[in-house]
Amino acid sequence: MNDRYLRTGIFLAPFHALDENPTLAIERDMALVEHLDRLNYHEAWIGEHHSGGFEIIASPEMFVAAAAERTRHIRLGTGVVSLPYHNPFMLASRMTQLDHMTRGRAMFGVGPGALVHDAAKIGVKAADQRSRMNESLDVIVDLMAGKSVTKKTDWFDLTAAQLQLPSYSQPGMEMAVACARSPVGAVASGRHGIGMLSIGGTSDDALKAHAANWQTYEEHARQNGKVSDRSRWRIVTFAHVAPTREQAFAEVNYGIDSFTKYFTDVATFPILPPGITDAAEYLTKEGIACIGTPDDCIRHFERLWKGSEGGFGAVLLLAHNWADWSATQRSYELMARYVHPHFQRGSNSLRQLSYDIATGNRETYSVQSQAAVAGEIEKYQAAKSKRAAE
């Protein structure tokens, strides 16, 4: 029996084309999380962005609070809160409240901020974002552990700051740090012994970088007396599946071009090199995305597992709206029905074993059943004959 258990979820920025109603787009994001909850996905991480027009959720905490009221099981994370944009005491206080309101289903994902446009609007220099993230994270970890913090930097000043609520989750609220190309996220998450969210693609080169960052995580965890736990490592990838490859490729034509254009025009790193005209073909060929059938998706996830050089805890799909709403819902359902069981401790293995035992003994059981029926018929006829003779 397969002893591997890979959790599943989404990383919801979100990405919405400029020509659609933003109110309805956010409502559809909420509907997606409800859909995933029914399909037994484990996690949904919600992003924070303030500019660029495409990624239109500004407060992941607000979204998580609303989603928690509409769902029953799925865990909900900030994916991620940009630490340089917030006073760490206020942020830790809000997240602790969210921990209580969700009865422990909320997760606290953090990062330096992905869009330079956001930072520029509040006077934060790109060169300062990562150092500020580390300053804030150190304070937040202490605050959420119940400690009193006095610390002054060039952007916040705390005097005997202490949260008025303990964490609802014990021993503490689950936290994770976004880690892309630089090792900053791996160093920070390893230093504190919290989770790591690997973003930045799943090409062969990207997988090598992710594996190297996990080694960095392990190194800094050891140096700080923390335990490395691969179940806390999450890798983000793209996927869209349909009953056939041809159908999957046809469906993503709905929105993939506007998505890749946003990454070229606005986002920090483009996902297509210059001159590429067929985004779906390129992303699939390079291993950045799986566009195909559930079997193709199984192979894609297996590749991620192998590329991690030892396994990881969860695969998160970057929600993208490449296909229309109905095709998107069907894609997530197909993965839940036919892909996830392959990676969750052989969830069908006992069913298969039971089926095999039944089929292997079918002839024997059939003979026994027929004999039992014939015996009952004989007994009935004998009793009937006896009553007639009397």
Provide an overview of this structure.
- The mean pLDDT is 95.
- Helix 1 (22-38) runs parallel beside helix 12 (325-339), helix 3 packs across helix 5 (129-144) and helix 11 packs across helix 12.
- This protein has helices at 22-38, 60-70, 88-101, 116-121, 129-144, 184-192, 204-223, 245-252, 256-265, 279-285, 294-307, 325-339, 349-360, 362-389; strands at residues 7-12, 43-46, 75-82, 106-111, 149-152, 157-161, 175-179, 195-198, 233-241, 289-292, 314-318.
- With 390 residues, it is an alpha/beta fold.
- The relative contact order is 0.12.
- It has two domains: 7-347, Luciferase-like domain (TIM Barrel), CATH 3.20.20; 355-389.
- The protein has 14 helices and eleven strands.
- It starts with 6 loop residues before the first strand and ends with a helix.
Outline:
By secondary structure, this protein is an alpha/beta fold.
CATH class of the largest domain: Alpha Beta
Can you tell me the residue ranges where pLDDT is under 50 for at least 5 consecutive residues? none
Arrangement of strands in the largest sheet:
1-2-3-4-7-8-9-11
Ends distance: 62 Å
> How much helical structure, as a percent, in the residues?
40-55%
Mean pLDDT: 95
Q: Please give the count of helices.
A: 14
Instruction: Evaluate the radius of gyration.
Output: 26 Å
CATH level-two architecture of the largest domain: Alpha-Beta Barrel
Number of strands: 11
Q: Sheet bearing the most strands, described?
A: 8 strands, parallel, barrel
H and E string: EHEHEHEHHEEEHEHEHHHEHEHHH
CATH fold node name of the largest domain: TIM Barrel
Q: Write the CATH homologous superfamily of the largest domain.
A: Luciferase-like domain
Bin the strand percentage: 15-25%
Domain count: 2
